[in-house]
Amino acid sequence: MDVDDADDPHGNYNDGNRAFLQGFLGRGQLTFEEGRKILAAIFTIQSQEEVTPEQVTQEDFDSFISAAADTLSQFDYEIRSTQHQLTKERTYAIVNSVSDAMTQLATTRTTEEMHYIKRLLDAMFETHNTRRREVMAVTSMQAMEKKVLKPGNRPADDDETTIDKGLTGGEAEKLLQKLEAEKWLERSRQGFYSLTPRALMELRGWLVDAYNEPLADGENPEEVWQRIKFCEACKDVVTVGQRCADLECNVRLHDICGAAFWNSRPNKQCPRCEADWDGKHFVGQKAITTTEEYLKGKRRSGGAAKRSRPADDEDEGGEGEDESRTQTQTNGRRRRQRATPEEEEQEDDE
């Protein structure tokens, strides 16, 4: 993606900018602290004097981000940024503004890996994302259950000539490690996989198209429950945060946005349905980890559950396999009839 000086009308784009962009591309996403380290190394070489990361300013970083964005725009890429939903740290990512992120992922993955990734996303945003419990994450065990499903000779939904053979346990583990290293997934200390800021920025449009239902004529978007929702304050996707106590209400709020949002309002009531907002209804893994059921199970099992996972992939079938097969058969049929709250509650109980 190098740009000749002739393509830079200001004559400011140099080897330092190219080195910064190379470092950015190699990481997939970038924070200010990571950028400071890259720029410190670049400035040290350019000045022949040691420059520490602490000497790199936000203004320095912003100027290199701006120059990189101008250069990437020639290739239909853009730089987007968002705050991490937990740490509030701003993250920058290079996003293809023409093709969708799933297409980009497919260029570096096998057919089986792409189908595994789609099943993993289905688990996050369908199986574990209902009116009653919006987790939008999967445990390490649940992630491994998805690879156990081997669809055999059933044609893939999007290509009747393609056969999805599934992944072995070892292949799935390696793929998960790669997705973590490439900053598509992050794993919490409790063992939950969720999408990173980079993934949410790149997959935002695809997630809405894939998991939200189209509105019928005359339907009010605020009155239709959808799986992908946005923060009432910052308007970014919410996969970690708080939700309205009303199960039919779509209002969601990042934890990091809460203080400023409520300080600007006369009361702590939902801005749409006016239900009291007690801050005890969660989105993300806390929708699981704060339940009495989870806490009791953790106290009973200690660390034994982790040691009890069968080593043989073929021994992990049964109920998990049946659930995975049912989920996979729904791929490509997003626009099915909407489930009622009672049906989703029954699914949660199961």
Topology:
Elements: H1 15-27, E1 29-31, H2 32-47, H3 58-72, E2 77-83, E3 90-96, H4 101-106, H5 111-127, E4 138-139, H6 140-148, E5 155-156, E6 159-163, H7 169-181, E7 185-187, E8 192-195, H8 197-211, E9 241-243, E10 252-253, H9 255-263, E11 282-283, H10 286-289, H11 292-301, H12 304-307, H13 319-329, H14 341-349
Antiparallel strand pairs: 1-3, 2-3, 4-8, 5-6, 7-8, 9-10, 9-11
Helix pairs in contact: 1-2, 5-6
Q: Could you characterize the architecture of this molecule?
A:
It is a single chain. With 350 residues, the chain is α+β, with helices and mostly antiparallel strands. It has helices spanning 15-27, 32-47, 58-72, 101-106, 111-127, 140-148, 169-181, 197-211, 255-263, 286-289, 292-301, 304-307, 319-329, 341-349, and strands at residues 29-31, 77-83, 90-96, 138-139, 155-156, 159-163, 185-187, 192-195, 241-243, 252-253, 282-283. It has a three-stranded antiparallel sheet with strand order 1-3-2, sandwiched between helices. The radius of gyration is 23 Å and the shape is globular. 29% of the residues are buried.
Shape: globular
Question: What percentage of the residues does DSSP assign to strands (E)?
Answer: 5-15%
In total, how many beta strands? 11
Mean pLDDT: 82
**Element pattern in H and E:** HEHHEEHHEHEEHEEHEEHEHHHHH
Largest sheet: 3 strands, antiparallel
Helix content: 40-55%
Sequence stretches where pLDDT stays below 50 over 5 or more residues = 1-7, 152-156, 304-337
Secondary-structure-derived class: alpha+beta
Question: Distance N terminus to C terminus?
Answer: 51 Å
> What is the number of helical segments per DSSP (H or I, 4+ residues)?
14
Strand order of the largest sheet: 1-3-2
**Gyration radius over CA:** 23 Å
